[in-house]
Amino acid sequence: MRDQRLWTWHVLAGLVIAVLLGLHMAVMHLDTVLGWFNPEGLKPIAWESVLQRARLGFFTVSYVVLLGAALFHGLYGLRNILFELGPGRGVKGLISVVLALGGAGLFVFGAWAAWTAGALARSL
User: Which of 14, 25, 31, 56 has the least CB density, counted as fewest CB within 10 Å?
Assistant: First the structure.
């Protein structure tokens, strides 16, 4: 039952990644058609455009959600690949703990960086 629940979260994380990366593609590469998040006449990678998006809380939250989804999706997939190699029960537990702690650490660091960048952009 636990594996089925984790697999469901894995699939949902993949869907979240697809939606948020689709938004990224629309904002960054369809700027002539959908210039909603870019100031008039500026490219998406222009500093003014980057600052404008960074000031919006929506983008900060979407970055953190994308980070969490990508970490879970990738690390759970790596865990399953490593489990297919047939390690013993103790090694499986160690793999799970190392990946969970590593993922949590990367998430905390990435979320802090996103929040700090958003706060810095709002102060400029």
Answer: 25
